[in-house]
Amino acid sequence: MIFELCATILLIGFILKMTKRPHNFPPGPRGLPLVGYLPFFSSWDPQYPHKAMKKISEVYGPVVGLYVGPSRPVISVCSHEAMKEAMLNDDLNGRPDSAVMMARTFGEKLGIMFVMGQFWQEQRQFTMRHLRDLGFGKTSIEDQMMGEVGDLIKDIENKSQSDPERIVDLKGIFQVSVINILWALVAGERFQRHDSKFQDLLRANELFFRTGKIFRGSMPVPAFLLKRFRFIREFIGVKAELIEPIQKFIKETIEDHQQRNPSDDEAGDFIDVYLKEMKKQKDENPSTNFTEKQLISTIIDLFGAGAESTSGSIGFAIIHLVRDQQVQQKMQMELDQVCGEFFPTINHRSSLPYTESVLMEAQRCSTIAPLTPPHYAIKDTKLLGYTIPQGSLVSLNLHAVFQDSKYWKDPEVFRPERHLNDDGSKVIKSDHFYPFGLGKRMCLGESLAKNTYFLFTAALIKKFRFEPVPNEPLPSLDPTNGFTLGYQGFKVVVTPRS
Ligand code: HEM
Hints:
49% helix; globular; binds protoporphyrin IX containing FE; signal; monooxygenase; heme
């Protein structure tokens, strides 16, 4: 009896200690022992965590502190000042261990997006340097991109011609083109648009992103519990079975490259360059981080981060333009004036301020990564004067900044002109707009993503008129949930412009 009483007191003491908020912790709602605030998020917004966090912040302030699970402090950052300070603070540049993300990388901390420290710096720098050399963000891959634009346009044209009312379903149609551009850099190949194996891989990648739960997925669950209990894996959303075929496909592609064994001068894609580095390092450094598993994991990160986000951005831009025919016509006028009979190129870009403002406004209104992948406090640090304990998960809410009425008048209204000077001749870059993040963790694919987003959206709008289907509701701007947000499938009337 005495033993049970002591054990109960000890257990209660332990739980209270674990849920005690540290001194000077940011204000925020309290949850329950063991589960923290997790069960209550949905009462603020049943569907979207970024909206729930924004609403909580409207009550508690720009930096909110709460607990998820028994001992994980979560810091939610919702104002521009706090966001900038957090993104530029190297002590907040870590990433939490996440069973969901590790399921993509053989249960180990590999890749670029969910690693930190020396390992992250080395692998990120190597990847960025070589992708840049291979053409990332350069006009040298513009021809390849224009080839993909041409194929996409043909595909849409055929679909439009084969329907008596010219109605085309644009669900998932941009992914193939975007992946082909990435795949050419990574593996030196392209896929056929309707290749069924490729379509299966795309679907698996999409499903992984659409079914991801950003907070549950970051709960610190010990590996032995995960292995043992299926319901825990399901609750936090570990979906290894979706990633396995992707891992297998990448592994086979690497094996093909190994068999080819290109000479130094022939190393024409990222896999070649990485394999060359692996060989060099193996001779010089037996404990090298350059391994085949790391290469596979890096490619998974590039596709995971790059495919859904870029194709989603193009999709949302088209939806905004279908909903606002006046803006679409104004953009078409500018494209016709500046590019004549040709498709827009990167060189045209600086002469297309209105087009640029439309692309920016679509990203502001429909932010594809409203919460960045969670950051992590590597050591105790400060944010807006509050203490952020080591081990905190830091959630950066870009949506809250891009929808903050302090910086954006009528933030919910789609109005490209807000990004232009008075006579509309120049784009004004706002300090409060950074869809690719800031600081050392900022998006690795920004230059490629910006060029792809511009070339595809501008070419589609130049080539076609996109109109709502008569007697049907307008295509929805409500995103589908997940690690990043996607657009819902939508149908439009597509007419080629003469
Ligand atoms: C419109 C398209 C895109 C948007 C809006 C976007 C946005 C972002 C954002 C907000 C972050 C997180 C920054 C942070 O954690 O603070 C990020 C990270 C990242 N992005 Fe992108 N991204 C896009 C396209 C791409 C593409 C095309 C690639 C690769 C080819 C890519 C690769 C990455 C990687 C690897 C990271 C993790 C970087 C790290 O942790 O060091 N992204 N992106």
